[in-house]
């Protein structure tokens, strides 16, 4: 399953979710997951370093692997007002 997130020009948090049988990520659907989003940062821990992207697909940089943890920074508010929220999610292995 692929899941993508980004912020559009209207400060909406967009999500893209797809389990493509054809392997083509572009066949999925986009949806709004939040509004007034000022910041979204994701980082993935490989066991040694935090990296800004994770590609576990066949042929990807981290093929057939999951990150050890994911760090999420999210700031929601209007006109740059709002506190950023940060959390680290540990991915169980094994």
Distinctive features:
single chain, mainly beta, four-stranded antiparallel β-sheet, 0% helix
Task: Set down the secondary structure blueprint.
Blueprint: E1 2-7, E2 13-18, E3 29-34, E4 37-45, E5 50-51, E6 69-76, E7 84-90
Antiparallel strand pairs: 1-2, 2-3, 4-5, 4-6, 6-7
Q: How would you state the average pLDDT, rounded?
A: 86
How would you characterize the largest beta sheet?
4 strands, antiparallel
- Structural class call reads mainly beta
Provide the β-strand percentage band.
over 45%
Approximate shape: flat
Low-confidence stretches: none
Radius of gyration, CA atoms, in whole angstroms: 15 Å
SS summary, helix count: 0
Question: Could you state the order of secondary-structure elements as H and E?
Answer: EEEEEEE
User: Considering DSSP H and I runs of 4 or more, what fraction of the residues is helical?
Assistant: under 10%
Oligomeric state as shown: single chain
CA distance, first residue to last residue: 19 Å
Strand order of the largest sheet: 5-4-6-7
How many strand segments? 7
């Amino acid at each position: 399953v692929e899941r993508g997130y980004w912020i559009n020009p209207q400060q909406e948090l967009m999500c893209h979710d797809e389990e493509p049988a054809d392997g083509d990520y572009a066949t999925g659907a986009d949806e709004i997951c939040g509004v007034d989003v000022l910041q979204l940062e994701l980082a993935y821990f490989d066991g040694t370093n935090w990296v800004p992207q994770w590609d576990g697909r066949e042929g990807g940089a981290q093929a057939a692997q999951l990150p050890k943890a994911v760090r999420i920074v999210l700031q929601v508010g209007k006109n740059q007002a709002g506190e950023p929220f940060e959390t680290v999610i540990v991915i169980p292995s094994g």
